[in-house]
Design a protein that fits this description.
about 60 residues; mainly alpha; 2 helices
Length: about 60
């Protein structure tokens, strides 16, 4: 019964992290701004860090099954 929330949270974190990394990679590849009003390097680094952090949380959630 307790595995349901862990599966849901892991799936949400995995989808968010993968989507954020894909979006950031696409924006950087097209040399488009990742965030308006923020330096390109800083915005790309922080969003990449957040994407990997979400993927780490997804893996952690899936190990709690």
């Amino acid at each position: 019964m307790e595995s349901g929330p862990a599966i849901f949270a892991g799936t949400v974190f995995a989808l968010f992290g993968a989507g954020l990394l894909l979006w950031t990679g696409t924006r950087v590849a097209h040399r488009a701004p990742v965030a308006h009003g923020v330096h390109q390097t800083a915005a790309a680094a922080l969003s990449t860090l957040a994407g990997f952090g979400a993927l780490v949380l997804a893996v952690w959630s899936f190990t709690r099954l």
